Amino acid sequence: MTALLDASFRIVGHTGERSVPWHDFFVTALTNCLEPEEILGEARLPPPRHGVALVGADALVDLDVAGQLSAARLVLAGIGETAWRWPEIEASLLE
């Protein structure tokens, strides 16, 4: 979502703060540009444009030591007032 909205991040540390665009914040899938003494102070998202709908879907799965699916979570966002989990589909994936 941060890439889609062209977001930036305010990074705060003991030496001050800096602003980082989304494409520099994410280094790899599980790594960001924060230094050991820094924290994320703010995610800056531009105001939504009139007539634009944002919808998102997220999935989280866990595999056991044998590589079999042991847990699943599915979340939809932007289709109501809050994010929505899909427990029926999650359960069916584990059958």
Helical content class: 10-25%
Helices, by number, come to: 3
Low-confidence stretches: none
By helix and strand content, what is the structural category? Answer: alpha+beta
Shape, per Cα inertia axes: flat
Characterize the quaternary organization of these chains.
single chain
In what range is the share of β-strand residues? 35-45%
Major sheet: arrangement of strands: 2-1-5
Order of helices and strands: HEEHEEEEEEH
How many structural domains does the protein architecture include?
A: 2
The radius of gyration over CA amounts to 18 Å
> What's the end-to-end separation, in Å?
31 Å
Q: Let me know the number of strands.
A: 8
Nearest-integer average pLDDT: 90
Main pleated sheet: 3 strands, antiparallel
Describe this structure in words.
The chain is an alpha+beta fold and 95 residues long. It has three helices and eight strands; from the N terminus they run αββαββββββα. Strands 2-1-5 form a three-stranded antiparallel β-sheet. The longest helix has 7 residues, at 87-93. The relative contact order is 0.16. The model has no long low-confidence stretch (mean pLDDT 90).
Offer a few descriptive terms.
95 residues, alpha+beta, 2 domains, three-stranded antiparallel beta sheet, 3 helices, 8 strands, flat
Would you summarize the structure shown here?
By secondary structure, the chain is of the alpha+beta class.
Layout of strands and helices, then pairs:
Blueprint lengths: L1 H4 L2 E6 L2 E6 H4 E3 L2 E2 L6 E6 L11 E8 L5 E9 L6 E2 L1 H7 L2
Antiparallel strand pairs: 1-2, 1-5, 3-4, 6-7, 7-8
